[in-house]
Write a structure and sequence with these properties.
It is a single chain. By secondary structure, the chain is α/β, with parallel strands linked by helices. The strands form 3 sheets. The chain has a 7-stranded mixed sheet, sandwiched between helices. It has 3 domains: about 70 residues, dopa decarboxylase, N-terminal domain (Up-down Bundle), CATH 1.20.1340; about 270 residues, Aspartate Aminotransferase, domain 2; about 110 residues, Aspartate Aminotransferase, domain 1. Helices cover about 40% and strands about 15% of the residues.
Length: about 475
Amino acid sequence: MDWDDYEDWGQKIARWGAAYHKSLRELPVRSQVSPGQVSQSIPTYAPEEPEDMAQIMADFDQFIMPGMTHWQHPRFFAYFPSNATPPSILADFLSATLSSQGILWQMSPAATELETAMMGWMRDAVGLPPDYSGVIQDSASTATLAAILTMRESVLNWEGNKHGLSGHNRLRVYVSDEAHSSVEKAVWIAGIGSENIVRLPVIGPMRGTDPSALKAAIESDIAAGFTPAGFVGVIGGTGMGACDDLEKLISVAKEFDLYVHVDAAWAGSAMICDEFRYLWCGIAGADSVVLNPHKWLGVQFDLSAHFLKNPADLVRTLAIRPDYLKTFGREGVINYSEWSIPLGRRFRALKLWFLFRCYGLENLRMRIRNHVLWSREIAEQVRHTQGFEITSEPILSLFTFRYAPKGIADLEDLNQRLINAINDDGRIYLTQTTLGDKFVIRFQTGQFETTREDVQTAYSVIVELAKKLA
C-alpha cells in the first residue's frame, strides 16, 4: 500500500466508521458467535504474497465483525463502557499517523507539554487541589501498580529496587473487600505477595471500608512484626459502586504514616459535576489518585489519569537513566517515561485536548447527569415491579437488582438464567456480581450516545424476559 492508497482507504474507513456508529441500534449488543467460530475462518499461516485491501476489508466484515461485542452500543449497560467519541477517534488517528514516541521531552516536546497541560485541565475539572501533578497511564491497573511499587519503596527507604525484599519484615497492604482485582495483581507483581493483602470488612449502604477495622488491622500487624506499607481506597467499586469514607480512612492511615492510593477509575469522571464530589470527600489527603477518562468521559481506551501529591517519589521508584535516555542542556523538563512503567509512550494527551475543546465541560457534565438521572428512574421502576428487588441503591449511575418472585427457592439459578436470556436476546447487555452471598444483576448507564429511550427499552426487556422465565 502506498500513500495514495492510504488516502483512499482512510476516507473509506472513516465512512465505514460513521455508518457503523449510526447503525449500532440495529445490531445485537453482545457477539452471538460460538467459541472457535472466528478462529476457524482465519488461515493457519500468513500469506506469502500481498493481498488486495478490498478483500481484506470484505473479510473483516464477514469474519471479524460477527465476533465483536459492541462497546459503543447505546444499550450497552454492562461493565463500564469504553466510550469512543468522534473527536477522540480523530485525535487517535492523528496520533497513529505521527506515531511518535514520548519517552523524553526532546523526542516530541509538544507531546510532553500537552500532557502536562491536559493533566492540569483534568485536575481542575474534577476539583483536585492544585498541588497534584498528573501523568497519563494506559490503564488504572498500571497506575495502581505504580502506586503499590511507590508505597513499597517509600516504606523500605528506597532499598527494595536495589536489594529486593529479602531481609525485611513482610509488608502489608490494606484494601476494601470491594477493591478491584487489579490491586491484588499489583501486589503480586510488586513482590509483596497476595498473602500480605489485608482485606477489610465493609459497612453501610455504600459498602465502604470500616475505619475501625483498618486501625485494628494495622495495630495487630505491627504487634506481629509486619510492616504496614499502604492503603488502597475505593471510589466507585466495579461490583456495585462501593465508596469508602476517605476522610476517616486517610486519617487512620496517616496516623501510621501509610501511603494512600485511591482507585476512582469509573466514578472519578463524574467529579466534573460539583454535586457528586461528596462521594470522595477527603480526597485531598491521598498520595495518589487514578481515574479513567476512557470510561465515562468520552475518550476511548486507553487513557488513565494518574494524579500524585509528590511525583518525586514515583520518579524515584521508576526512573532509570542510561546515557542514551538523558536530555542534556534542557534543565527542568519532564520526561514522562520516568513516571510510568513502560518506556515507550503514545501521544494520548491529544485525545483529551480534542475532547475538551469539541464538547466543553458543561456538555460533558450534562451527559453524566443524564446517565445518573436515567439510572435512578429505572431503579425506581424495577423497585415497584412485582417480583423484583433492588439489592443496592444507585451510586451515580450504577445499581444492582435481582428477580425474586415468591415461591422460587433457587434465586441464584433463576437470575443466572435471566441474565443469560437477556444477553442472548441481544437488545441489551448486562453483567452480574455477587453482593454478600447473593447473585445479583448490575445495571450501569454510561455509553456516550445512550438516550432515556434506550434505558426504558432496557426496563421493558428485563421485565419481558423475566416473565417468560417465571
